[in-house]
């Protein structure tokens, strides 16, 4: 019974996702992404409830709940087509409304260092809450024009890293997306220019800062709420309509 409902639910998702794919968008819209992971296949019965399992008949993996839920990069392995990103940090644009259940979503942005990072344990901005127009899939992006590097981490031109974006749904499950980067000089012509077309805040997605217990390093600066709110005991809502800033 529950499984039936679940399968129906996922069939609906697949249909919605396929419909969205016509627009050929990705979750991380700037500076790029590992590849399309808006994909669900196999059944929960085949994996006995696991999020991912090897299908020996087919010689590949199946993701009955959807690839995007798999830590750390939504079922996608390290890519070879890295994109250049400024050595002092740069822009990050995300389309958060791909799946149902994201009328509100917590967003985390982390870095992992190296060719294939051992972990994604370097947060670069404090987690924040977004509010979208609907619990159904919706278009639109938010963009952080200057995501800094973690405090006390220095990188060189040519160093490799991975940017991980985690987006929790209303029920708490996390969607994972990554882009593999290679650090480049700020004025490297191969860094895709940041423009109003690839880095913008949609007017119907708003930010709400979260209660933070402690600064997390240099990354805290850009999204830091006013000082007095740090004392609050509950999430602080400082809704800022994106559109107002652009
Ligand atoms: C890397 O290649 C994949 C598969 O072709 C593509 O979907 C993705 O956009 C590429 N990513 C970058 C950063 O170029
Ligand atoms: C795996 O199965 C899918 C359909 O379920 C099929 O499209 C695909 O070609 C198969 N892959 C292999 C390697 O057999
Ligand atoms: C399931 O989808 C993944 C991602 O597209 C693919 O790599 C894999 O081969 C698929 N598995 C089957 C059994 O079709
Ligand atoms: C995460 O990986 C880095 C190397 O990129 C390492 O220095 C650090 O100790 C690791 N942190 C944790 C919590 O494992
Ligand atoms: C989008 O809104 C956030 C939060 O207010 C802000 O930090 C960021 O700079 C805005 N992005 C753009 C492109 O204005
Ligand atoms: C950065 O390094 C300084 C000096 O070693 C230290 O006091 C500070 O706590 C470090 N910050 C972080 C976020 O690790």
Outline the fold blueprint.
Elements: H1 2-21, E1 28-30, E2 53-55, E3 60-62, E4 83-86, E5 90-94, E6 104-113, E7 122-131, E8 142-147, E9 160-168, E10 174-184, E11 206-209, H2 220-223, E12 240-241
InterPro entries: BIM1-like, BIM1-like_dom
GO cellular component, one term: plasma membrane
Keywords: Cell membrane, Glycoprotein, GPI-anchor, Lipoprotein, Membrane, Signal
Features:
seven-stranded mixed sheet, 10% helix, mainly beta, binds 2-acetamido-2-deoxy-beta-D-glucopyranose, three-stranded antiparallel sheet, disordered N terminus
- Global morphology: globular
Element pattern in H and E? HEEEEEEEEEEEHE
What proportion strand? 25-35%
Q: How many β-strand stretches? A: 12
Bound molecules: 2-acetamido-2-deoxy-beta-D-glucopyranose
Q: How large is the radius of gyration?
A: 18 Å
H/I helix tally: 2
Poorly predicted tracts of residues = 1-25, 213-222, 224-246
SS-derived structural category: mainly beta
Cα separation of the termini: 48 Å
Major β-sheet strand ordering? 4-10-9-6-7-11-12
The major beta sheet can be summarized as: 7 strands, mixed
Number of domains: 1
Helix content: under 10%
Mean pLDDT across the residues is 80
Organism: Penicillium cinerascens
GO cellular component, one term: side of membrane
Subcellular location: Cell membrane
Keywords: Cell membrane, Glycoprotein, GPI-anchor, Lipoprotein, Membrane, Signal
């Amino acid at each position: 019974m529950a499984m039936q409902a679940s399968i129906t639910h996922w069939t609906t998702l697949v249909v919605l996702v396929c419909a969205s794919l016509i627009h050929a968008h990705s979750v991380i819209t700037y500076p790029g992404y590992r590849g399309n992971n808006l994909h669900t296949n196999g059944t929960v019965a085949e994996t006995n409830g696991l999020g991912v399992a090897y299908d020996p008949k087919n010689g590949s993996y199946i993701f009955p709940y959807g690839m995007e839920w798999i830590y750390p990069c939504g079922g996608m392995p390290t890519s070879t087509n890295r994109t250049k990103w400024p050595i002092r940090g740069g822009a990050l644009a995300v389309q958060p409304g791909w799946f149902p259940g994201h009328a509100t979503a917590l967003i985390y942005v982390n870095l992992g260092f190296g060719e294939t990072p051992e972990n994604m344990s370097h947060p670069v901005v404090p987690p924040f809450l977004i509010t979208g127009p609907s619990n159904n899939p919706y278009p639109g992006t938010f963009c952080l024009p200057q995501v800094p590097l973690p405090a006390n981490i220095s990188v060189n031109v040519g160093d490799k890293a991975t940017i991980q974006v985690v987006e929790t749904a209303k029920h708490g499950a996390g969607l994972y997306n990554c882009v593999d980067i290679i650090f480049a000089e700020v004025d490297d012509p191969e860094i895709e220019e940041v423009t109003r077309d690839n880095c913008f805040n949609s007017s119907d997605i708003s930010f709400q800062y979260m209660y933070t217990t402690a600064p997390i390093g240099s990354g805290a600066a850009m999204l830091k709420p006013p000082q007095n709110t740090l004392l609050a005991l509950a999430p602080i809502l400082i809704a800022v309509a994106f559109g107002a800033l652009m």
